[in-house]
Structures are given as C-alpha cells and as structure tokens.
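Because discrete structure vocabularies remain unfamiliar, we reproduce here a specimen of the format, pairing a chain with its fold in token form:
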Amino acid sequence: MGDFFKVVSAGPMFFVSTWVLMVFIGIASKNLGIHPIGYGTSMVVTIGLWLAVAPAIGAVSRVPGRRSRHG
C-alpha cells in the first residue's frame, strides 16, 4: 500500500516543481539573457526533465546487492 501513496504524492509534486522552475527561471532570466517563461512552458520542461531523470532514478534504486526492506 506504501507504493500507492508514493505514486499519489508524485502528482502534487509535479505541480510544485513546475512552479518552482518557473520562479527560478523568472529570477535568473535577466542574468541569463532569456525571457521569463509561463506556467505552461514550465510544465513542458518539467515533464521533459522528469522523463529524462526517472529512468536513471529507477536504475539506481535497483542496484544489485542491495537488500530490500520487504524481503
């Protein structure tokens, strides 16, 4: 049942991380010479980042030799 709650908690964290990315790009935009992005563009970038990072996190979490707490 714990895995279910981990998946459910990922939904709100997506929206929080989207908002945080939008805020940080807005803060750094003048120094980087780019335009601030809106929430929709920030969602697209966050989805791309999550799709790129999720397989790496999954691979690291399944390292052979580590004992599972459930086994």
The mean pLDDT is 85.
